[in-house]
Amino acid sequence: MTAVPELPEEGADAPQDAPAENTPVDRAADDDAVFAQLVAGFDHPVDAEARSWPAAEDLSDLAPVARPRPVIKPLPRIQAIAPVDPRNWIPEESSEDDHYVPPPPPPLPQTATATRLAVAAVIVGVALTLYSAFGQLPGVGGMGAFLGIGLFVGGVGTLISRMREDDDEDDDPQRGAVV
């Protein structure tokens, strides 16, 4: 068994044979030697009598006590459904009449003429603004962009003003109960 060297306590005086000055190189060599001793003695068993802690901190009397294991009864096996191999499963044949055919969708509601014109003004306004900004309109100059922005703003304003409100046409402005 390899003995672990005792390290001096912090308040203890230096040993008599130690040099007066410890250089950092000497300390590093000593640390490496102590570490090598600790690693070499790692797998050796520790003597129970040579413990390095006080007896008041010994936890041997606090070891857990083995409890008897409960008896576990196995549950009865019940097979409710016969096992089916998914590789042998064949779906039932279905006739062509069994599939769902959705009803035709309702027709789109008719839009008012003012709404159609407002949407057209928005589309033409964007196209005219982009074409006048990136293309060339002969004889129009900067008026194309001005006209395109005006059409866009007018179309958006018309669409916003024609939006429906979800308010019911009630005569009671307080929306209270009638007693």
Task: Give a description of the structure.
- It is a single chain.
- This protein is mostly helical and 179 residues long.
- It has a domain at 113-161.
- Helix content is 32%, strand content 0%.
- The protein contains 3 helices and no strands.
- The protein has helices at residues 24-40, 113-134, 143-161.
- Helix 2 (113-134) packs antiparallel against helix 3 (143-161).
- The longest helix is centred in the C-terminal third of the chain and has 22 residues, at 113-134.
- The chain starts with 23 loop residues before the first helix and ends in an 18-residue tail after the last helix.
- The mean pLDDT is 77.
SSE layout and pairing:
Elements: H1 24-40, H2 113-134, H3 143-161
Helix pairs in contact: 2-3
In short:
The protein is an all-alpha fold and 179 residues long. It is built from three helices and no strands. It starts with 23 loop residues before the first helix and ends in an 18-residue tail after the last helix.
Low-confidence regions: none
Structural class: mainly alpha
Task: Average the pLDDT over all residues and give the rounded result.
Answer: 77
β-strand number: 0
Helix content: 25-40%
